[in-house]
């Protein structure tokens, strides 16, 4: 019998060869290795799937040079052993897409989805012959692949002990990463190391090769599955490690089902890598909620920073922050300055009980009069932003969920900040028999939980801002009420963290964490002071720049009202800056060093530009070619002043107006730890 061949696909040169297969008497020989190849629409990026000694293996090349070296695929299945040896590849089924869809809110209103797809069945050659389908979508600037467990009698109740997907980074690279499996979830400062010195990392993890190519690994559409960590197993080879479960297995599903997408984003430089992140959205299903006009991007203030300063407390007592009088004052401030909501933390009974066992999500403390507060807010044209802290007791929260959302809906609350403050592995739930079980924030149970919360909240027209969350994987496309989340070190670390967030934090976040989606950083600390007067290593202009650089459709003016009264120029910027965008462009930047971001106001002609730098002073030419050539604009600029910077006077800020012309170059200086923010409005 003359056997298999390698097929030429995607416009690349044939790799084929012809093999002679001898069939022994009484049986059929195992199929020889076969390769299938799928390239991007522009033909530059190609994914190759093959088997090596029967093990499914893939690689990725760009312009003929390797990006991902040969990397194996497989699963450890409970009670069924390893799947990933003696595998043969079926014939590929190919398709393509080229469409543009509209976000109800976002960094860009329109998203282009242009890719080529290949679907291949992978089947064991043995008695059981279990099959898994693999789908690959290749875009011009990255790709995603996922596995589908089809309906088959030999594999129905699927228990996954581990997924064995590998990523072997080709070429010497450095990496920016945070550790996975550690107690503080995702809230770590980023490590910057050679790629071959990474331990076990969360995703997104970003690599920069010595030739300048940028690569980020992440996942998309994480639904009813455990999130992965990336464990370096040798040199620059990484393998997925699923977040643990309270059960012996890490994932349990009934077939048929699909895994999340495993994603590889690729850019010539850091700005191009950020642009590639639309792939994460494109690999999620379209909106399941229908009309979501009730989801309103907005700026908010709230009862929050005072607790981090230790001026107030979340729990009832002499320092209680969430009192009726305090909230009424914040409502007045919000109404006077155009903020849409007032966040109130610590208003409900149960703070702070061990593992959140005493939380009551629809029972207020005696000094918090919700009837009076809600009535006053309505009169002032301001909404209350709700807060549900669980202390990691997700099970209790689920049991009270309908009552909690009913309560908020009754009082006109349309957005809720949720919280899961607990150490990794400290999420509490109960089995049906009442047995307590402990889960990870990014295990399968919590992946289900966050979707369940989003679905139930949508029934009450409530948007969710999750803190201490599972990582973002683009589910805001499917559930547009998942408006933003934490999942990184936020501003509270500047109040009490040891150390506080350094100046390189935001220009690192933009090209790492922000590849996954919006981040509720809670900027705007114009006092530049944390607890007990500790200095925040930022400038005043830098705090304003964060509103443009770090995207969130909910942006907090996090400081105390009395501090904004001392800095009216800074407050003027915060009042004006939009939160919903027509389009976004990263104009320049390097990971951990600096970033310049331009965003066009959704539905408007005005653009907003923010720049941030690390502890080094930089003078940056801003290319204004994104504006119509020759068109005149009025630029209002908030920038670091003379003698400013964290090694000088961090409050030194200049607010000025200039006339500029589209296509010109505008050069601005950022002092150490500083930045700038500016608006560009068509000249009248």
Query: What portion of residues is helical?
Result: 10-25%
Average pLDDT score: 94
Largest sheet: 11 strands, antiparallel
Beta-strand percent range? 35-45%
In words, what does this structure look like?
This protein starts with 35 loop residues before the first strand and ends with a strand. It is of the alpha+beta class and 684 residues long. The model is unreliable at 1-31 (pLDDT under 50). Strand 26, helix 6 (394-410) and strand 27 (415-419) form a beta-alpha-beta unit. The protein is built from twelve helices and 40 strands. Helices cover 16% and strands 36% of the residues. The chain is globular, with a radius of gyration of 26 Å. Helix 6 runs parallel beside helix 7. Strands 7, 8, 9, 10, 11, 14, 15, 17, 18, 22 and 23 form an eleven-stranded antiparallel sheet that branches. An eight-stranded antiparallel sheet has the order 1-2-3-4-13-20-19-16, with no helix packed on it. The longest helix is centred in the middle third of the chain and has 17 residues, at 394-410. This is Glycoside hydrolase family 97 protein. It comes from Qipengyuania pacifica. Residues 1-29 form the signal peptide. It holds the Pfam family GH97_C. One of its GO terms (molecular function) is hydrolase activity.
Key features of this structure:
single chain; about 675 residues; alpha+beta; eleven-stranded antiparallel beta sheet; eight-stranded antiparallel beta sheet; 40 strands; about 35% strand; globular; disordered N terminus; GH97_C; hydrolase
């Amino acid at each position: 019998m003359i056997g298999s061949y390698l097929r030429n696909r995607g416009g690349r040169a044939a790799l084929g060869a012809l093999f002679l297969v001898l069939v022994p008497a009484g049986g059929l020989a195992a199929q020889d290795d076969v390769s299938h190849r799928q390239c991007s629409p522009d033909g530059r990026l190609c994914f190759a799937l093959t088997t090596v000694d029967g093990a499914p293996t893939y690689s990725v090349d760009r312009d003929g040079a390797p990006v991902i070296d040969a990397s194996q695929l497989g699963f450890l299945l409970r009670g069924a052993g390893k799947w990933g040896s003696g595998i043969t590849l079926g014939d590929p089924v190919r398709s393509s897409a080229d469409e543009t869809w509209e976000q109800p809110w976002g960094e860009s209103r329109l998203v282009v989805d242009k890719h080529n797809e290949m679907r291949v069945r992978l089947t064991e050659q043995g008695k059981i012959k279990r099959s898994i389908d693999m789908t690959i979508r290749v875009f011009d600037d990255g790709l995603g692949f996922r596995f589908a467990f089809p309906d088959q009698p030999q594999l129905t109740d699927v228990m996954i002990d581990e997924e064995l997907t590998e990523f072997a980074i080709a070429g010497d690279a450095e990496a920016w990463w945070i550790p996975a499996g550690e107690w503080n979830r995702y809230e770590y400062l980023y490590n910057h190391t050679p790629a071959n010195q990474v331990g076990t990392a969360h995703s997104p993890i970003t690599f920069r090769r010595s030739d300048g190519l940028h690569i980020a690994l992440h996942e998309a559409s994480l639904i009813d599955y455990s999130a992965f960590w990336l464990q370096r197993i040798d040199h620059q080879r990484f393998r997925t490690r699923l977040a643990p479960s309270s059960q012996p297995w890490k994932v349990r599903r009934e077939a048929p089902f699909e895994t999340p997408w495993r994603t590889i984003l690729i850019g010539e430089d850091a700005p191009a890598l950020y642009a590639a992140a639309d792939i994460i959205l494109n690999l999620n299903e379209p909106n399941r909620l229908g009309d979501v006009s009730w989801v309103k991007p907005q700026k908010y203030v709230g009862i929050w920073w005072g607790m981090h300063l230790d001026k107030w407390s979340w729990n009832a007592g002499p320092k209680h922050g969430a009192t009726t009088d305090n909230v009424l004052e914040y409502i007045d401030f919000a109404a006077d300055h155009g903020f849409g909501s007032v966040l109130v933390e610590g208003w409900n009974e149960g703070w702070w009980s061990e593992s959140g066992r005493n939380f009551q999500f629809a029972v207020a403390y005696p000094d918090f009069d919700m009837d009076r507060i809600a009535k006053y807010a309505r009169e002032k044209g301001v909404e209350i932003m709700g807060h549900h802290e669980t202390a990691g007791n997700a099970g209790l929260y689920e049991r009270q969920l309908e009552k909690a959302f009913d309560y908020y809906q009754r009082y006109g609350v349309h957005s809720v900040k949720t919280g899961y403050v607990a150490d990794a592995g400290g999420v509490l739930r109960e089995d049906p028999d009442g047995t307590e079980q402990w889960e990870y924030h990014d295990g399968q149970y919590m992946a289900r939980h966050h979707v369940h919360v989003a679905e139930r909240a949508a029934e009450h027209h409530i948007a969710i801002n999750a803190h201490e969350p599972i990582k973002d994987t683009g589910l805001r496309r499917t559930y547009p009420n998942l408006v933003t989340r934490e999942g990184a070190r936020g501003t509270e670390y500047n109040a009490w963290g040891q150390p506080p967030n350094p100046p390189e934090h935001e220009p690192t976040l933009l090209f790492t964490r922000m590849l996954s989606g919006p981040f509720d950083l809670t900027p705007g600390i114009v006092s530049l002071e944390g607890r007990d007067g500790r200095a925040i290593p930022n400038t005043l202009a830098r705090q304003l720049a964060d509103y443009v650089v770090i995207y969130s459709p909910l942006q907090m003016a996090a400081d105390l009202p009395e501090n904004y009264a001392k800095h009216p120029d800074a407050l003027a910027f915060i009042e004006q800056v939009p939160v919903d965008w027509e389009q976004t462009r990263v104009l320049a930047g390097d990971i951990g060093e600096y970033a310049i971001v331009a965003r066009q106001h959704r539905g408007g002609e005005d653009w907003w530009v923010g720049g941030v730098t690390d502890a080094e002073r930089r003078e940056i030419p801003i290319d204004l070619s994104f504006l119509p050539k020759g068109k005149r604009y009025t630029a209002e600029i908030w920038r670091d002043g003379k003698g400013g910077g964290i090694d000088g006077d961090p409050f030194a800020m200049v607010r000025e107006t200039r006339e500029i012309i589209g296509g010109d170059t505008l050069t601005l200086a950022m002092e150490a730890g500083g930045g700038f923010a500016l608006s560009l409005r068509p000249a009248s």
